[in-house]
Amino acid sequence: DVSEQNATFVAALQDERRRAAAETQLPSDLARENARAAKEEGAVEPELDAQADELWQRANCAQLAAIERADGELHNAQLLAHCNRELRRLKATSVLDDVFDIWFEGAFGTVNGLRLGRLPAEQVEWAEINAALGHAALLVDTLAAAHHLRLPKHTLHIMGSFTKIAHNDEPKALLELHGSGSLQLGRIFSGTRFDRALCMFLQCVGALVAHARRSASDSLGEAPYRIEEDRIGTPGKMLSIRLQFNQDELWTRALKYMLTDLKWLLAWSSQVTAVPKGESASVAASPHR
Fold it and tell me: Do the bridges between strand 114-116 and strand 237-240 make them parallel or antiparallel, or are there none, so unpaired?
């Protein structure tokens, strides 16, 4: 019995030693596993850091691109708004009003500061009168071209202070729309070339007025003065545009009336839209009211 007890005790003691050895081995294995995992993690961490840096860089680039795109869109919107403001301003600006400044100086009508007419007490030089007539003729020609209109009876040959005019039936028979001091002597003769040219030019103005009247707005109203052949004015007070057999005061007033109608045509031109190119319109054949 003693032998069996000793054997049992020895067996139990061996089992206890095996369990102790196993428990001692477990932490060692866990430590080795942790060491291996740490080693693997240490090898992966630089790669993860590089990937993270790349992602942040991409995110920063995308954010910067978004900011630049937003700034570009804002700039474009501001530029568009500025262009629209400029377009509205330019549409409201009459270039012809700036180029052809028609005004009045006492008894004289003026175009670009040049007086048109003569008075006994104020003998304007013919060089100034001719220059004023050249500007007036250029205005009529420009208005007709801007609105694609064809003058029905006459053709202007713009040559500054030496502008000429011709009847469409006789295109080569040019008349001088400019005068000189010698016209004082020519008043005793009928049908001077200058007077005929003035009458033809007045009819050109009348033709434009007749056309403009058909499209003028109610706010613009009628042209200030009516034109009939070689006369201009109001009913019962028509004045001749001719120089011969005329008084300087009346001739100057008639020229002032003509410039007033030209100023009305400038206002009309700024209100209407020109006919598209290729759809040329012909001015009414008669300039009469």
Answer: unpaired
Residue type, 48: L
Tokens encoding 198: 């003035």
Kindly report the pTM of this predicted structure: 0.65
Whether 179 and 129 have beta carbons less than 8 Å apart is answered as: yes
Tens-digit pLDDT profile for residues 64-90: 899 999 988 989 999 999 998 888 777
- Cβ atoms 224, 262 nearer than 8 A: no
Query: Is the distance from CB of 167 to CB of 200 less than 8 angstroms?
Result: yes
Write the CA distances from 180 to 115, 125, 163, 183, 184, integer angstroms.
15, 9, 13, 6, 8
* pLDDT value for 4: 65
Res 124: pLDDT: 92
**Structure confidence at residue 285 as a pLDDT band (50, 70, 90):** very low
Beta bridge mates, 111: 102, 114
Other C-beta atoms lying within 10 Å of the C-beta of residue 178? 22
Question: Quick one: DSSP state of residue 281?
Answer: E
For 227, 229, 245, 274, 289, the CA distances from 216, given in Å and listed in that order, are 17, 22, 36, 13, 15
Q: DSSP alpha helices (H): ranges in the chain?
A: 2-91, 95-99, 126-146, 183-186, 193-215, 248-271
